[in-house]
Specification:
binds nickel (II) ion; 4 strands; 43% helix; alpha/beta; Rossmann fold
C-alpha cells in the first residue's frame, strides 16, 4: 500500500484501521565499481513496498538522499547535512502525524544514516516532551529504525552465500539485491581484485577516497548475482514483515 498511489479518501479509510506508516530511507551515493548509485534507496524502497503489501501497511515516499558526506569524492554522490536530514525526517513524520499516523517504522538502506536517524527521533520526541509540537496534548508518536540487512537470520544467509567477502560498503548482498530487482541495470564487473581488509574508519570525503580508492570497503561485489539477491531480498522481507506485525500490536 503506497501512499502516493492512494486518494485522500483511501488514506482517511486506512487511518480508521491503522495508524502505522512504513518509512523507506536510503542514500544516493557511489557503491563501488559495479554498484548503482541508488542502491541504498532502491533496496529500502523495494523491501518497504513488499513488507507493506505483506502486512497491509501504508508505505510513505522514500527519503532517497541521506547522510553521505564521506562519499562526495566520487561523482554522482549526493548528501544532506546531518542537520538537514534531521529536519527532513521531522517534517515527513510531522506531516503524517498531523493526519493521525503515530507509529513510524523506518526501513533503512544505508548504515551511514543510523546516527542521524536516531538523532532525528530524539528531536521529534523532545518536541513532544517540551510541548512545542502541537501543544501539550498532541498525541505521542513512536519511531523505530530497522536496517534491512540486520535480521536475526540474515547474517547466517550472507555467510553461507558469500563467506567473509560481503564487506561493509558496496556489499555483495546489496549489489545482488539490486541485480535481482533491476536486471536491466546489471553492470559488468571490472577486475577489481580481492577486497582490501578494513583497517580504519574515515573522516571526510578526501580521507575516505584515500583509504578506499574504488569506493568499496572490504567487499567483493564482483561476486554478486541476481539469484543470491533474490534469497537476500526474500529473507529481509519475511523477517521485517514479522517485526512490523509485532510493532503494530506493541
Ligand atoms: Ni549501501
Amino acid at each position: 500500500m503506497q501512499l502516493q498511489m492512494q486518494t485522500w479518501a483511501e488514506v482517511e479509510g486506512y487511518l480508521e484501521t491503522s495508524t502505522m506508516a512504513i518509512m523507506p530511507i536510503g542514500s544516493t551515493e557511489q557503491h563501488g565499481p559495479n554498484g548503482l548509485i541508488g542502491t541504498d534507496a532502491v533496496t529500502a524502497e523495494a523491501i518497504a513496498l513488499a513488507v507493506g503489501a505483506a502486512t497491509d501497511t501504508m508505505v510513505a515516499p522514500t527519503i532517497a538522499v541521506g547522510m553521505a558526506q564521506h562519499h562526495m569524492a566520487f561523482k554522482g554522490s549526493m548528501t544532506l547535512r546531518p542537520a538537514t536530514l534531521i529536519q527532513v525526517i521531522g517534517d515527513y513524520v510531522g506531516s503524517l502525524a498531523h493526519h493521525g499516523f503515530d507509529r513510524f517504522y523506518f526501513i533503512n538502506g544505508h548504515g551511514g544514516n543510523g546516527a542521524t536517524i536516531e538523532a532525528a527521533f530524539q528531536e521529534i520526541y523532545t518536541a513532544h516532551s517540551l510541548g512545542s509540537h502541537g501543544g501539550e496534548n498532541a498525541p505521542s508518536v513512536r519511531c523505530q529504525l530497522r536496517n534491512w540487512w540486520q535480521g536475526p537470520k540474515m547474517g547466517a544467509l550472507i555467510k553461507q552465500l558469500f563467506g567473509d567477502k560481503d564487506g561493509m560498503h558496496a556489499t555483495i548482498s546489496e549489489v545482488s539485491v539490486t541485480q535481482y530487482l533491476f536486471p536491466e541495470h546489471i553492470k559488468s564487473a571490472p577486475d577489481m581484485g580481492p577486497p582490501e581488509p578494513f583497517r580504519s574508519r574515515w573522516s571526510d570525503a578526501a580521507d575516505y577516497r584515500a583509504k578506499f580508492p574504488d569506493g568499496r570497503i572490504a567487499s567483493h561485489p564482483g561476486l554478486a548475482t541476481p539469484e543470491a539477491g533474490k534469497q537476500v531480498f526474500d529473507l529481509a522481507v519475511a523477517e521485517i514483515a514479522e517485526e512490523v506485525a509485532a510493532y503494530a500490536q506493541g
